[in-house]
Amino acid sequence: MQELVRKLLEELGEDPGREGLLNTPKRVEKALRFLTSGYEADIDAVLNNALFTVDYSEMVIVKDIDFYSLCEHHLLPFFGRCHVAYIPTNKVIGLSKIPRLVEVFSRRLQVQERLTSQIADTIQEKISPLGVAVVVEASHLCMSMRGVQKQNSLAVTSAMIGAFRDNARTRMEFLELIKVRGAGPSPRDWAAATEACAEEA
Ligand SMILES: [Zn+2]
């Protein structure tokens, strides 16, 4: 990878041999390996010993989980917050494992929509709750740095499964509890985001 980065620097019109860039290939490789380390993570190992049988059937919410990911279209960061909720049947996930799950899926090349649904689907698969809701609000540097989108505007995506999809009151209770800062999860926001991002594909 370091040789590729040296080549890339040359292609950009830089001199990979100048002092400030000498160790850049090594640093870039290290950074990229870390930022994509989610490919190697084993979900079952992450959740190991953290699935508990309980007699609890109220909504469990973990909100404001910070995440950083890389847009697969431009290899530029998108980052923001993730909110997760589920209604257990008889199993819960240790609370600290939810942010770990978000981390595993965000440390890959991603699109925001897939990141959102992968988190929801995994929780659904592992503990079969009555429902799962995931909302992700993110800023995309591939949009704001290129001036495609206004600074500070957020793309909001959501995945609603089971009770959160079928029951409007359950969904509203969740959205009220997380108080999404943007316009709220609307498919339109996501459409705008993909459009802007796919523009140069
Ligand atoms: Zn992008």
Determine and state the CATH class of the largest domain.
Answer: Alpha Beta
| Outline type | elongated
Q: Give start-end ranges of low-pLDDT stretches.
A: 182-191
Distance from N terminus to C terminus (CA atoms, Å) equals 24 Å
The largest sheet is: 5 strands, mixed
N-to-C SSE series?
A: HHHEEEEHEHEHEHHH
Based on helices, strands and strand pairing, what is the structural class?
alpha+beta
Q: What is the CATH superfamily classification of the largest domain? A: GTP cyclohydrolase I, C-terminal domain/NADPH-dependent 7-cyano-7-deazaguanine reductase, N-terminal domain
CATH architecture of the largest domain: 2-Layer Sandwich
Might you state the CATH topology name of the largest domain? GTP Cyclohydrolase I, domain 2
Task: Name the average pLDDT.
Answer: 88
Tally the helices: what do you get?
A: 9
